[in-house]
Design goal:
Helices cover about 30% and strands about 25% of the residues. It is of the alpha+beta class. Strands 14, 17, 20, 21, 22, 23 and 24 form a 7-stranded mixed beta sheet that branches. A 4-stranded antiparallel beta sheet has the order 1-8-6-3, with no helix packed on it. Helix 2 packs across helix 3, helix 6 crosses helix 7 and helix 6 crosses helix 9. It starts with a strand and ends with a helix.
Protein backbone atom coordinates (compact mmCIF):
# COMPACT_ATOMS: atom_id res chain seq x y z
CA UNK A 1 0.00 0.00 0.00
CA UNK A 2 1.21 3.50 -0.78
CA UNK A 3 1.85 5.67 2.29
CA UNK A 4 2.05 9.45 1.89
CA UNK A 5 4.89 11.32 3.62
CA UNK A 6 3.65 14.82 4.31
CA UNK A 7 5.16 18.08 5.47
CA UNK A 8 4.50 18.87 9.14
CA UNK A 9 1.60 21.07 10.10
CA UNK A 10 3.08 24.56 10.11
CA UNK A 11 1.63 27.09 12.58
CA UNK A 12 -0.01 30.27 11.29
CA UNK A 13 3.24 32.22 11.69
CA UNK A 14 5.00 29.94 9.17
CA UNK A 15 3.67 30.19 5.62
CA UNK A 16 5.77 27.50 3.95
CA UNK A 17 9.14 25.75 3.90
CA UNK A 18 11.89 24.71 1.50
CA UNK A 19 13.24 21.21 0.90
CA UNK A 20 16.90 21.31 1.96
CA UNK A 21 17.98 17.68 1.60
CA UNK A 22 16.66 14.18 0.96
CA UNK A 23 18.44 11.43 2.88
CA UNK A 24 16.93 8.62 0.81
CA UNK A 25 16.34 8.17 -2.91
CA UNK A 26 13.60 6.27 -4.78
CA UNK A 27 14.17 2.54 -4.40
CA UNK A 28 15.90 2.84 -1.02
CA UNK A 29 14.60 0.95 2.00
CA UNK A 30 13.37 3.10 4.87
CA UNK A 31 12.43 2.26 8.42
CA UNK A 32 9.68 3.85 10.44
CA UNK A 33 10.75 7.05 12.23
CA UNK A 34 13.90 7.30 10.08
CA UNK A 35 14.47 10.90 8.96
CA UNK A 36 13.80 11.19 5.23
CA UNK A 37 13.97 14.89 4.48
CA UNK A 38 14.96 18.24 6.03
CA UNK A 39 12.63 21.22 5.58
CA UNK A 40 13.85 24.72 6.37
CA UNK A 41 11.38 27.42 7.36
CA UNK A 42 12.01 31.03 8.29
CA UNK A 43 12.14 29.98 11.93
CA UNK A 44 13.40 26.43 12.44
CA UNK A 45 14.57 23.32 10.58
CA UNK A 46 12.14 20.39 10.49
CA UNK A 47 13.27 16.76 10.17
CA UNK A 48 10.46 14.75 8.59
CA UNK A 49 10.51 11.02 9.50
CA UNK A 50 8.98 8.06 7.70
CA UNK A 51 5.59 7.16 9.12
CA UNK A 52 6.00 3.54 8.01
CA UNK A 53 8.70 1.11 6.93
CA UNK A 54 9.04 0.08 3.31
CA UNK A 55 10.57 1.30 0.06
CA UNK A 56 10.74 4.95 -0.97
CA UNK A 57 8.64 4.76 -4.14
CA UNK A 58 8.57 8.38 -5.25
CA UNK A 59 9.84 11.83 -4.27
CA UNK A 60 7.16 14.40 -5.03
CA UNK A 61 8.97 17.56 -3.86
CA UNK A 62 12.61 17.83 -4.90
CA UNK A 63 15.39 19.75 -3.17
CA UNK A 64 14.72 23.50 -3.41
CA UNK A 65 10.97 23.11 -3.76
CA UNK A 66 8.67 25.24 -1.64
CA UNK A 67 6.09 23.21 0.26
CA UNK A 68 3.03 24.10 2.27
CA UNK A 69 1.71 22.67 5.52
CA UNK A 70 0.68 19.00 5.17
CA UNK A 71 1.72 18.91 1.50
CA UNK A 72 2.70 15.47 0.16
CA UNK A 73 6.49 15.11 -0.09
CA UNK A 74 6.97 11.48 -1.03
CA UNK A 75 5.35 8.06 -1.33
CA UNK A 76 6.50 4.98 0.60
CA UNK A 77 5.39 1.51 -0.46
CA UNK A 78 4.95 -0.57 2.67
CA UNK A 79 4.70 -3.83 0.69
CA UNK A 80 8.28 -4.44 1.80
CA UNK A 81 8.70 -4.49 5.55
CA UNK A 82 12.09 -3.73 7.08
CA UNK A 83 12.89 -5.68 10.23
CA UNK A 84 14.85 -4.21 13.10
CA UNK A 85 17.78 -6.47 12.16
CA UNK A 86 18.13 -4.75 8.78
CA UNK A 87 16.52 -7.48 6.65
CA UNK A 88 13.60 -6.78 4.36
CA UNK A 89 10.54 -9.02 4.34
CA UNK A 90 7.90 -9.16 1.63
CA UNK A 91 4.21 -9.58 2.30
CA UNK A 92 4.61 -13.31 1.55
CA UNK A 93 7.09 -13.62 4.39
CA UNK A 94 10.22 -14.26 2.32
CA UNK A 95 13.36 -12.81 3.85
CA UNK A 96 16.42 -11.55 2.04
CA UNK A 97 19.47 -9.61 3.13
CA UNK A 98 19.27 -5.87 2.82
CA UNK A 99 22.13 -3.88 1.41
CA UNK A 100 20.87 -0.78 3.15
CA UNK A 101 22.79 0.58 6.12
CA UNK A 102 20.89 -0.31 9.27
CA UNK A 103 21.73 3.03 10.81
CA UNK A 104 19.24 5.85 10.08
CA UNK A 105 20.88 8.77 8.36
CA UNK A 106 20.20 11.04 11.27
CA UNK A 107 23.25 9.38 12.76
CA UNK A 108 26.45 7.95 11.31
CA UNK A 109 28.36 4.78 12.15
CA UNK A 110 31.76 5.88 13.39
CA UNK A 111 34.19 3.24 14.65
CA UNK A 112 31.25 1.01 15.64
CA UNK A 113 29.71 3.93 17.54
CA UNK A 114 26.70 5.98 16.42
CA UNK A 115 27.40 9.71 16.20
CA UNK A 116 24.58 12.18 15.59
CA UNK A 117 25.00 14.76 12.85
CA UNK A 118 23.10 18.06 12.80
CA UNK A 119 21.11 18.71 9.57
CA UNK A 120 23.25 21.69 8.51
CA UNK A 121 26.44 19.70 9.16
CA UNK A 122 25.09 16.69 7.27
CA UNK A 123 24.38 18.90 4.24
CA UNK A 124 27.94 20.28 4.26
CA UNK A 125 29.45 16.80 4.64
CA UNK A 126 27.43 15.58 1.65
CA UNK A 127 28.18 18.69 -0.43
CA UNK A 128 31.95 18.43 0.06
CA UNK A 129 32.00 14.60 0.06
CA UNK A 130 33.81 14.47 3.38
CA UNK A 131 34.66 11.45 5.55
CA UNK A 132 32.58 11.83 8.70
CA UNK A 133 35.12 9.69 10.61
CA UNK A 134 37.66 12.52 10.26
CA UNK A 135 35.43 15.14 11.91
CA UNK A 136 35.28 15.61 15.67
CA UNK A 137 31.89 16.63 17.05
CA UNK A 138 31.62 19.21 19.82
CA UNK A 139 27.86 19.03 20.30
CA UNK A 140 26.02 17.19 23.02
CA UNK A 141 27.01 13.53 23.06
CA UNK A 142 29.59 14.14 20.33
CA UNK A 143 27.00 15.48 17.87
CA UNK A 144 28.71 16.92 14.78
CA UNK A 145 27.70 20.55 14.27
CA UNK A 146 28.05 22.88 11.30
CA UNK A 147 30.91 24.66 13.07
CA UNK A 148 32.78 21.35 13.38
CA UNK A 149 32.60 20.83 9.61
CA UNK A 150 33.66 24.42 8.95
CA UNK A 151 36.60 24.02 11.31
CA UNK A 152 37.60 20.77 9.60
CA UNK A 153 37.50 22.45 6.16
CA UNK A 154 39.58 25.36 7.44
CA UNK A 155 42.15 23.00 8.92
CA UNK A 156 42.36 21.07 5.67
CA UNK A 157 42.81 24.29 3.71
CA UNK A 158 45.57 25.45 6.06
CA UNK A 159 47.28 22.05 5.83
CA UNK A 160 47.21 22.09 2.03
CA UNK A 161 48.42 25.70 1.97
CA UNK A 162 51.35 24.78 4.22
CA UNK A 163 52.28 21.82 2.05
CA UNK A 164 51.99 23.99 -1.04
CA UNK A 165 54.46 26.52 0.39
CA UNK A 166 56.90 23.75 1.40
CA UNK A 167 56.74 21.88 -1.92
CA UNK A 168 59.91 21.34 -3.98
CA UNK A 169 60.72 24.03 -6.55
CA UNK A 170 61.02 21.26 -9.18
CA UNK A 171 57.25 20.94 -8.96
CA UNK A 172 56.09 24.50 -9.64
CA UNK A 173 52.49 23.58 -10.23
CA UNK A 174 51.37 21.08 -7.58
CA UNK A 175 47.90 19.64 -7.92
CA UNK A 176 45.37 21.05 -5.45
CA UNK A 177 41.83 19.73 -5.15
CA UNK A 178 39.13 22.10 -6.56
CA UNK A 179 37.58 22.48 -3.08
CA UNK A 180 40.84 23.53 -1.43
CA UNK A 181 41.81 25.65 -4.45
CA UNK A 182 38.57 27.60 -4.12
CA UNK A 183 39.14 28.10 -0.41
CA UNK A 184 42.70 29.37 -0.95
CA UNK A 185 41.79 31.77 -3.77
CA UNK A 186 40.07 34.47 -1.74
CA UNK A 187 39.72 36.71 -4.81
CA UNK A 188 36.98 34.53 -6.28
CA UNK A 189 33.34 35.23 -5.66
CA UNK A 190 31.01 32.78 -4.05
CA UNK A 191 27.31 33.10 -4.71
CA UNK A 192 24.92 31.17 -2.48
CA UNK A 193 21.17 31.55 -2.00
CA UNK A 194 19.93 33.05 1.24
CA UNK A 195 18.65 30.57 3.77
CA UNK A 196 14.98 31.00 4.54
CA UNK A 197 15.91 32.21 8.01
CA UNK A 198 18.24 34.89 6.63
CA UNK A 199 15.71 35.90 3.96
CA UNK A 200 12.95 36.17 6.56
CA UNK A 201 15.18 38.21 8.88
CA UNK A 202 15.94 40.59 6.02
CA UNK A 203 12.26 40.87 5.15
CA UNK A 204 11.18 41.56 8.73
CA UNK A 205 13.93 44.11 9.34
CA UNK A 206 12.99 46.10 6.25
CA UNK A 207 9.30 45.78 7.12
CA UNK A 208 9.71 47.10 10.65
CA UNK A 209 11.76 50.05 9.40
CA UNK A 210 8.88 51.01 7.11
CA UNK A 211 5.99 50.44 9.53
CA UNK A 212 7.27 51.53 12.97
CA UNK A 213 8.46 54.91 14.20
CA UNK A 214 11.71 53.69 15.74
CA UNK A 215 13.70 55.82 18.15
CA UNK A 216 16.53 54.86 20.50
CA UNK A 217 17.42 56.24 23.89
CA UNK A 218 20.70 55.55 25.70
CA UNK A 219 22.00 55.41 29.23
CA UNK A 220 24.91 53.89 31.13
CA UNK A 221 24.99 51.64 34.16
CA UNK A 222 27.70 51.05 36.74
CA UNK A 223 27.96 47.25 36.84
CA UNK A 224 30.14 47.16 39.98
CA UNK A 225 27.29 46.29 42.40
CA UNK A 226 26.11 43.36 40.25
CA UNK A 227 29.68 42.15 39.73
CA UNK A 228 30.36 42.33 43.48
CA UNK A 229 27.19 40.36 44.20
CA UNK A 230 28.09 37.68 41.66
CA UNK A 231 31.63 37.43 42.99
CA UNK A 232 30.41 37.08 46.55
CA UNK A 233 27.84 34.35 45.94
CA UNK A 234 28.90 32.65 42.68
CA UNK A 235 30.29 29.50 44.30
CA UNK A 236 27.35 28.98 46.65
CA UNK A 237 24.90 29.81 43.87
CA UNK A 238 26.36 27.20 41.55
CA UNK A 239 26.54 24.61 44.33
CA UNK A 240 22.89 25.11 45.32
CA UNK A 241 21.34 25.59 41.88
CA UNK A 242 23.72 23.66 39.64
CA UNK A 243 24.16 26.59 37.26
CA UNK A 244 26.51 29.55 37.05
CA UNK A 245 25.09 33.00 37.61
CA UNK A 246 25.53 35.29 34.61
CA UNK A 247 24.54 38.88 33.96
CA UNK A 248 21.46 38.19 31.86
CA UNK A 249 19.12 37.11 34.71
CA UNK A 250 19.68 40.49 36.41
CA UNK A 251 18.73 42.29 33.21
CA UNK A 252 15.67 40.09 32.76
CA UNK A 253 14.50 40.76 36.32
CA UNK A 254 15.19 44.51 36.05
CA UNK A 255 13.35 44.64 32.72
CA UNK A 256 10.30 42.90 34.15
CA UNK A 257 10.09 45.38 37.01
CA UNK A 258 10.41 48.27 34.56
CA UNK A 259 7.77 46.72 32.28
CA UNK A 260 5.36 46.56 35.21
CA UNK A 261 5.82 50.28 35.76
CA UNK A 262 5.59 51.19 32.06
CA UNK A 263 3.10 48.73 30.48
CA UNK A 264 3.21 50.43 27.06
CA UNK A 265 6.74 49.07 26.61
CA UNK A 266 5.29 45.56 27.00
CA UNK A 267 2.47 46.26 24.54
CA UNK A 268 2.05 45.82 20.79
CA UNK A 269 -0.03 47.30 18.00
CA UNK A 270 -2.70 45.19 16.30
CA UNK A 271 -4.35 47.19 13.54
CA UNK A 272 -5.84 50.23 15.23
CA UNK A 273 -5.69 48.64 18.70
CA UNK A 274 -2.99 48.62 21.38
CA UNK A 275 -2.67 45.22 23.05
CA UNK A 276 -1.36 45.40 26.63
CA UNK A 277 0.15 42.12 27.75
CA UNK A 278 -0.36 41.19 31.38
CA UNK A 279 2.40 38.59 31.24
CA UNK A 280 6.14 38.76 30.59
CA UNK A 281 7.55 36.47 27.90
CA UNK A 282 11.08 37.74 27.44
CA UNK A 283 12.97 37.00 24.23
CA UNK A 284 16.72 36.48 24.61
CA UNK A 285 18.66 36.88 21.35
CA UNK A 286 21.27 34.12 20.89
CA UNK A 287 23.49 33.24 17.95
CA UNK A 288 23.16 29.94 16.10
CA UNK A 289 24.81 28.38 13.05
CA UNK A 290 21.81 29.57 11.00
CA UNK A 291 21.85 33.13 12.31
CA UNK A 292 20.38 35.10 15.19
CA UNK A 293 17.40 33.50 16.89
CA UNK A 294 15.28 34.72 19.79
CA UNK A 295 14.01 31.93 22.09
CA UNK A 296 11.41 32.99 24.63
CA UNK A 297 11.68 32.70 28.41
CA UNK A 298 8.00 32.13 29.20
CA UNK A 299 6.36 33.70 32.26
CA UNK A 300 9.73 35.07 33.29
CA UNK A 301 8.22 36.98 36.21
CA UNK A 302 7.55 33.70 38.01
CA UNK A 303 11.14 32.45 37.63
CA UNK A 304 14.07 32.87 40.00
CA UNK A 305 17.49 34.05 38.84
CA UNK A 306 18.54 30.41 38.70
CA UNK A 307 15.46 29.45 36.71
CA UNK A 308 16.11 32.18 34.16
CA UNK A 309 19.79 31.23 33.85
CA UNK A 310 18.91 27.56 33.36
CA UNK A 311 16.43 28.31 30.59
CA UNK A 312 18.84 30.61 28.79
CA UNK A 313 21.60 27.98 28.94
CA UNK A 314 19.24 25.30 27.63
CA UNK A 315 18.15 27.52 24.74
CA UNK A 316 21.76 28.41 23.89
CA UNK A 317 22.65 24.72 23.69
CA UNK A 318 19.64 23.96 21.50
CA UNK A 319 20.47 26.89 19.22
CA UNK A 320 24.03 25.63 18.78
CA UNK A 321 22.83 22.13 17.99
CA UNK A 322 20.06 23.36 15.70
CA UNK A 323 17.32 21.71 17.74
CA UNK A 324 15.19 24.71 18.70
CA UNK A 325 11.50 23.95 18.24
CA UNK A 326 9.05 26.39 16.74
CA UNK A 327 7.35 26.92 20.09
CA UNK A 328 10.72 27.90 21.58
CA UNK A 329 11.00 30.99 19.38
CA UNK A 330 7.38 32.00 18.81
CA UNK A 331 5.76 34.93 20.59
CA UNK A 332 7.42 37.13 23.18
CA UNK A 333 6.46 40.55 24.54
CA UNK A 334 9.91 42.15 24.99
CA UNK A 335 13.42 41.29 23.78
CA UNK A 336 16.92 41.66 25.21
CA UNK A 337 19.98 41.39 22.98
CA UNK A 338 23.60 41.43 24.10
CA UNK A 339 26.01 42.70 21.47
CA UNK A 340 28.64 42.96 24.18
CA UNK A 341 29.52 39.28 23.83
CA UNK A 342 30.88 40.16 20.37
CA UNK A 343 32.67 43.30 21.58
CA UNK A 344 30.03 45.89 20.66
CA UNK A 345 30.42 49.14 22.60
CA UNK A 346 27.21 50.83 21.43
CA UNK A 347 24.47 50.03 18.95
CA UNK A 348 20.84 50.77 18.11
CA UNK A 349 18.98 47.44 18.25
CA UNK A 350 16.08 47.01 15.86
CA UNK A 351 12.60 46.00 16.98
CA UNK A 352 11.42 42.41 16.87
CA UNK A 353 7.85 42.89 15.54
CA UNK A 354 5.17 43.00 16.75
CA UNK A 355 6.96 43.97 19.98
CA UNK A 356 7.24 47.67 20.69
CA UNK A 357 10.69 47.77 22.33
CA UNK A 358 14.03 46.01 22.62
CA UNK A 359 16.86 46.43 25.13
CA UNK A 360 20.45 46.35 23.93
CA UNK A 361 23.31 45.38 26.25
CA UNK A 362 26.94 46.10 25.39
CA UNK A 363 30.51 45.40 26.43
CA UNK A 364 31.54 46.29 29.97
CA UNK A 365 34.55 48.61 30.06
CA UNK A 366 36.43 50.35 32.86
CA UNK A 367 35.57 54.06 32.66
CA UNK A 368 36.24 57.15 34.72
CA UNK A 369 33.21 58.16 36.78
CA UNK A 370 32.69 60.69 39.54
CA UNK A 371 31.64 59.37 42.96
CA UNK A 372 31.39 61.71 45.94
CA UNK A 373 33.51 64.27 44.11
CA UNK A 374 36.29 61.78 43.29
CA UNK A 375 37.17 60.37 39.89
CA UNK A 376 37.28 56.57 40.08
CA UNK A 377 37.37 53.70 37.60
CA UNK A 378 34.21 51.62 37.38
CA UNK A 379 32.97 48.84 35.06
CA UNK A 380 30.40 50.63 32.90
CA UNK A 381 27.98 49.28 30.31
CA UNK A 382 26.10 51.41 27.81
CA UNK A 383 22.42 50.49 27.44
CA UNK A 384 20.18 51.21 24.46
CA UNK A 385 16.40 51.01 24.27
CA UNK A 386 14.88 51.10 20.80
CA UNK A 387 11.13 51.69 20.89
CA UNK A 388 8.10 52.33 18.71
CA UNK A 389 7.22 55.98 19.16
CA UNK A 390 3.68 55.30 17.93
CA UNK A 391 2.70 53.90 21.32
CA UNK A 392 5.64 54.76 23.60
CA UNK A 393 6.36 58.38 24.44
CA UNK A 394 9.93 59.57 24.78
CA UNK A 395 9.44 60.29 28.47
CA UNK A 396 8.24 56.73 29.10
CA UNK A 397 11.20 55.28 27.21
CA UNK A 398 13.73 57.37 29.12
CA UNK A 399 12.16 56.58 32.49
CA UNK A 400 11.99 52.89 31.60
CA UNK A 401 15.71 52.80 30.90
CA UNK A 402 16.48 54.84 34.02
CA UNK A 403 14.51 52.31 36.07
CA UNK A 404 16.66 49.47 34.73
CA UNK A 405 19.80 51.48 35.48
CA UNK A 406 18.72 52.17 39.07
CA UNK A 407 17.78 48.54 39.73
CA UNK A 408 21.08 47.21 38.40
CA UNK A 409 23.09 49.72 40.42
CA UNK A 410 21.25 48.56 43.55
CA UNK A 411 20.50 44.88 42.79
CA UNK A 412 18.95 44.24 46.21
CA UNK A 413 15.94 46.16 44.89
CA UNK A 414 15.51 43.51 42.21
CA UNK A 415 15.05 40.83 44.83
CA UNK A 416 12.83 43.04 46.96
CA UNK A 417 10.83 44.25 43.91
CA UNK A 418 11.03 47.88 45.04
Amino acid sequence: MDIEIKAPGFPESVADGSIVAWHKQPGDLVTQDEVLVDIETDKVMFEVPAVASGVLKEIVADVGATVLSQEVLAIVDDAVKVSSSGSEKSKQGKVKKSSVNKTPETSVSMSDKLVAVAPAARNMISQHELDVNSISGTGKGGRILKEDVQRYLSEQAADVSSKHEMSDNDDPDPVVSPLIDDMLDVSREKRVPMTRLRARIAERLVEVQHTAAILTTFNEVNMQPVMDLRQRYKDRFEKVHGVRLGFMPFFVKASIEALKRFPAVNASIDGSDIVYHNYFDIGIAVSSPRGLVVPIVRNAASLTLAGIESQINAYAAKAKEGTLALEDISGGTFTITNGGVFGSMLSTPILNPPQSAILGMHKIEQRAVVENGDIVARPVMYLALSYDHRIIDGQEAVQFLVTIKELLEDPARIMLEI
